[in-house]
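Design a sequence for this backbone.
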C-alpha cells in the first residue's frame, strides 16, 4: 500500500516537472496522461484503504524517488526529455512488479483487487514509456 502511494506521488511530481520544463509535445502529452491517471489511481487507493478500514498511507516519496526527482529537476532540454522517458520506463517496471506481487499474494482483499485492476494500467504505461524513450532517443 505504501509503495503504491509513493509511486503515485512520484509519478505526479515527475509529470508536473515535465509539464513545467519540457518543450517536447510527446513528453508533455505523456506527462499529462500520467498526471491524470495517477491522480485517479491515488483516489482509488484511498477508497480501497478506507473500505478495508486501514490507516491511509503516509504522504511522500521514497529516498530513491527523491534522488530521481532531483536529477530530473536539474536536467534541461533534450537531456531532460531523455531522462524523464528513462525514469518512466524504469519506475513503471518497478510499479508493475509491486502490483503483480500484491495481486498474487496480498492479504487485504480490497487492496488485492485494486492491485489486480491496476496491473493493466501499469502495463499500458510501460508501453507508453517505451514509446516515449524511442521518440526522444537515448544517451
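Sequence:
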Amino acid at each position: 500500500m505504501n509503495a503504491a502511494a509513493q509511486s503515485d506521488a512520484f509519478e505526479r511530481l515527475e509529470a508536473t516537472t515535465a509539464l513545467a520544463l519540457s518543450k517536447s509535445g510527446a513528453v508533455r502529452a505523456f506527462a499529462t496522461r500520467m498526471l491524470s491517471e495517477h491522480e485517479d489511481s491515488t483516489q482509488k487507493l484511498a477508497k480501497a484503504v478506507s473500505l478495508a478500514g486501514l490507516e491511509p498511507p503516509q504522504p511522500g516519496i521514497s529516498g530513491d524517488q527523491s534522488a530521481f526527482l532531483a536529477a530530473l529537476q536539474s536536467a534541461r532540454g533534450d537531456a531532460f526529455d531523455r531522462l524523464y522517458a528513462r525514469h518512466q520506463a524504469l519506475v513503471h517496471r518497478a510499479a508493475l512488479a509491486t502490483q503483480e506481487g500484491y495481486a498474487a499474494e496480498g492479504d487485504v482483499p480490497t487492496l488485492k483487487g485494486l492491485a489486480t485492476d491496476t496491473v493493466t494500467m501499469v502495463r499500458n504505461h510501460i508501453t507508453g514509456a517505451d514509446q516515449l524513450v524511442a521518440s526522444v532517443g537515448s544517451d
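Residues 19 and 28 are 6 Å apart (CA to CA).
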